[in-house]
Amino acid sequence: MVVGLTGAAADYGRDALRAFPLVVDRVNREGGIKAHGGATVKLHVADHQTDLRVTSSETERLITRNNVLGILGWAASGSARVGSEVTERYQVPAIDTSVDYKLTERGLKYFYRAAVHTRQTCDLGVQFVADMEKATGKAVKRVAILHEDLAYGTGAGDLYKAAIERLGRWQLVDRVAYTAAKLTEATGIVNKLKAQNVEVVFQASYPADGILIQRAMKQLRLNLFANVHPAGAPPNTQYVANLKDDANYVYTALGWTASMFEKLPPGARATVEQYRKVHGVDVQDQAGYSLSAAAAMVDALGRARSLDRAALWEAVKTVDISFGKDPSIIIPYGVKWDEKHDNAKAQAIMTQISDQKLVVVYPKDLAQKNPVFPAPKWEERA
Amino acid sequence: MELTPAVIGQMLVTGVLVGSIYGAVAMGFSLIFGVVRIVNFAHAGGVVWAMYAVFLVTSGGVLGPYLATALVIPVFFGLGYLLQRALMVRIADMTEEMHIVFTFGLLLVLTYLAQFAFGHDVRFLASSERHLAFGGIVVQREILVGGGVAALSALGLHVALARTWLGKAIRASADNRRGAVLIGLDVRALQRVAVAVSVASAALAGGLLATFTTLYPLRAFELAILAFLIVVLSGIRSLLGSFGGGVIVGVLEGAGTLLLSPSLAQLGIHALIFAALLIRPEGLWGRKEAV
Amino acid sequence: MTRGRLVALAALLAAALAVPAGASGYTVNILTQICLYTFLAGAWNVMALSGLVSLGHAAFFGLGGYATAWLYVTHGVTPALGWIAGAVLAGAVAYAVYWVAFRCGLRGIYFGGLTLVLAESFRFAAINSPALGRSQGLELLGFHMPSAAVYALALGLMAGGMLLTWWLLRSPFGYRLHAVRENELAAEALGVDTFRSKLSATVLSAALTAMGGTAHALLLRFVEPESDFGLSVSLNLLLGTFLGGTGTVLGPAVGITVLFGLREAIALVGEQLAVGTAGVYALQQVVYGLILMLVVLLLPEGLVRVAGSWVRRWWPARATHAAAAPRTVQPGAASGPRAADAGSETAPLLQVAGLTRAFEGLVALRDVSFELYRGEILGIIGPNGAGKTTLFNVISGIHPPTAGSVHFRGQSLAALTPSQVCRRGLARTFQVVRPFASLSVLDNVIIGALVRARDLRRARERSEEVLDFVGLAARRDATAGALTIQDRKLLEFARALATDPEVILLDEVMAGLNPAEQERVAATIRRIRDRGITLLLIEHVMRAVMGLSDRVLVLDHGVLIAEGKPEAIVRDPEVIRVYLGGSPVPA
After folding, report:
1. Residue A209 lies in a domain
2. Residue C288 is nearest to which of B108, B221, B274, comparing CB atoms?
3. Full domain range(s) for residue A13
């Protein structure tokens, strides 16, 4: 595995570092890869420091020095871009957990993605608001996109814009890109949105800036029908921990949240509980994708005809794990690749923060509560 | 978008107040450069550690952030004194580039030590939720207090340097080191005091920032660049100048956010500093040094 | 470079080229990065040679990468052309930006700030430019270049860069850059066109950096704002160069190798110690920072120089040569005819007319007029603040006059830079001596000699002759900073003489010397005059002025109050009043 353990993407790298060994250790405890005489799986760890040069050399180190069969990584979009070029060159199968939609639009042969990506989460966000508009009769007129200006946010902004234009019903009054690292205070941004009377904000943020923006929305009483994120800030535990009740009613589309625990098959529940026990925290979405990625890799190892990269690749191609079959799969509904090598079985779900918890509100079969739309005005909140 | 007086007022008031706090960050950076002639990128590391210190003291639940800051400042004063005595004095005679390498190394140490100790998680001080509203402008209390304290401390430091014996002695030793030695000033002791004051000002800036912004270790790098740019824009050796530079950057950020976008505002700010440097090569309030 | 060395180098290169055949892809990758960054640090070093510290070389690095990627992605242009386009673009941008910056007189921390802001502006421009893919960057999809080829390219760049540095350090251009770094004003006064030297160095450096940026884009096949225009690129170059030592051929290579080696070693140790805790990775960065600090504290000269001094300590035999033996050289043959001219010409050599210079209301010179004739020694005296040094600064082109004119051999010196004035044949020394402290005595003089000499060999011959003449030949290999005050004054003479001037302006060369030393300096001045060189000297030490000068001018508060033979001046009541405080002149 090669993930960012330092640098800007260290949060996601840390989740991956918690999740990957969990799967590998379990396989080894249960007697290794049975098809290959109980061979144990060895996980080499490398830190790409969220630095592209280091990504390139560390990925190459794992491949040529540690002679790994496959790569789990990179949990950061930029690094995945560079790292996947390396795995492609060496014809090493790689399963990634980054969410940037562009990664799988490059026609790579050895690159797969287990995560629910931004095209899914952004499209769901727009679709969801459109559905709610119909269901409640509250007409939405003016919407805005607010995103941080690195690869994640910019990509999400593009996707939101395309989806809104496809829908063609709303007026997209503004698209605001901001620099997360330079943000010390967000009333300037919110002031701008408020001056344009927006009703729905589609927002892609990191935790530190997402907190500031939400805080400023309250301060300036920017009352929205909905504030919708593609994963990003709200799933991060720090978001709710710091904002408390002010985080309520925020929507975020993602592949996994801890409150889905109740709906899990028993095996998957055990995995989540073990994760909680070992690391003292709930499984986050990135950790969930990492579990899926590791499970897919281990599954492929078990089905590979021999222990070499070509055979592993053949096996990775045909990964098809159903929800409930493999205890490591906690993301509904399993892993299977589509023609772009995205996970066709993983589906974006919509959650809303309610009483400081992410609660699933869509799709129906996973929903725990009905969405609150529009969100109550700040003045009316307790 | 309708640019009502309230919208513009909100932008200006917040811009000035946040800019004042930027000024407070830059002030200490400017002081150290003026007196010891060291480009101290580690200054921002001090700011971030002060933020963590204030955060930790406050989370004990007994002291509010302002009292915590008041507690942290003398500690940082002492640390600054030691910093000059133990480290900075050893590199004083080296070239500017060496100063940059050294203080950047120190910044790395401080930043990642913070990450090691406190983790990568984002922290946010539960704010008072109190706002001041007038004419449609809503200002968070902490930002109002922060901007005010920053302005007062800039003024206070300026007066202290201009009027008190100690301040005059520090300025004299900065302007003409040999002359200061000749008239019997203990230049090394004065430098230690100046660096101590600078680090204490980092603590103050950190304390003020901690009351309203999010905290994570890598903020140190951004603050280092921010302080450096403000000081270069306003001209070294002018404390009030770097305060003014902070306000300019704050207002530009606000105006750029409102009229363009925050990301384009960053492009604008950098382009404007670029232009300003070409027009005023010694900074806005800088003095031409004798040939 | 000897033939043996060339063969050894070629063998080394061939061996390096063969590395990919046997090594793992990782090794090749790291070596490629090391070669590339060595090259980049070398490019940075070209600029650092002139004393300019850039914190924003990422600007040019990114221009190279982006130009190549953009041309390839949008127009299918081969990176080979993109490579050149990037270098040309970066050179042009550097020319425009630095032309203005140097004209505006930007320096020191402000210059560093400007470069940083430039890179950050480019980064935010890329972030906000849809054509450049915003933060999604541009990917060279479908571009295939074997890693061995990328490695060979990086290796070639590195070797080329090192050769360039090697040549630079031995070329007149390199000498001039050194002089600019050590003391810009003194360099200018010695005929170095500092503006052009700095501009050439920065443009060259920027173009080279862009080439490295292209190679980097080929290595990663991806460009994006942060990794191409970000601060970490600039910092790596700075750290690497300074670890290794600026102004050396091997410095960048050593510094970058150590930097990369450190990072890999720390990562390796970290991996052995404890897999599974993210905290360890934060500690790695802490160790990295600590090592940077320690290197500054313990090896501030840079690794290469420290290693070099160790080597010299163990093999001391090679260093010394037979320099000490003083050769008797007749005062230059060329000066003979000139000496004969002395006094025979009636047209003044230097004509100062109505010269006024004011500094923000303070008038330092008021309507000063005088003439200097070929072959004479003209002394200028006056109390402190009389405007003597200002007079020199105006004549030598450092300050433009507020009013009035200076003509040298009938031609106006108006609007000339100090270096142009020097090239016309008017050299000067400084009251506060300004040696190029870290250069050798010989190199100091060579910089002056390069005004006339066409190549370094001739400049060296000329310099050795001049050093013999002023009596510093024995000290020629000493570092200028280590000289005694008296020797430094003689060095100022030597440097000025080396420019082969017709007139030398001497600014208080006697100050700070004891009587015996003053006598030695006075003798040198007479011998200079005997070579046919005309002298204008400012002096505080009365006895020396009176004894040396053919004529004396007296300045007071910027006004010329007396002019005449020394014997007349010492009896002039006005002079006695303002300058001598009423007491009779000591004989």
Report:
1. yes
2. B108
3. 2-116+263-336
